[in-house]
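2024-03-11 09:14:02 INFO worker-7 job=invfold-0412 stage=load source=structure_tokens
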């Protein structure tokens, strides 16, 4: 299992998409203290592409990730 946690204390919603979700939007759940969490099956690939969105804003590269162009012409992090 892969646990993804995002600290967004003022957010009303946090979403994730990437190759781990087959590029479907996945809503993270608030878990207290400003943290949002998603649990996904462990990926089989060594790297994964992900993008985050807070409060229906623009899709962003997760902090600490390498920026890459995704197959849809947008950006994601690896």
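2024-03-11 09:14:09 INFO worker-7 stage=emit residues=78
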């Amino acid at each position: 299992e892969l646990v993804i946690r995002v600290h967004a204390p003022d957010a009303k919603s946090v979403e994730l998409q990437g190759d781990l979700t087959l590029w479907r939007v996945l809503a993270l759940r608030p878990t207290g203290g400003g943290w949002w969490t998603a649990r996904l099956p462990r990926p089989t690939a060594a790297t994964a592409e992900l993008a985050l969105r807070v409060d229906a804003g623009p899709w962003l590269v997760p902090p600490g990730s390498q920026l890459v162009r995704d197959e849809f012409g947008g950006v994601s992090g690896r």
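2024-03-11 09:14:09 INFO worker-7 stage=report msg="DSSP finds no helices and eight strands in the chain."
2024-03-11 09:14:10 INFO worker-7 job finished
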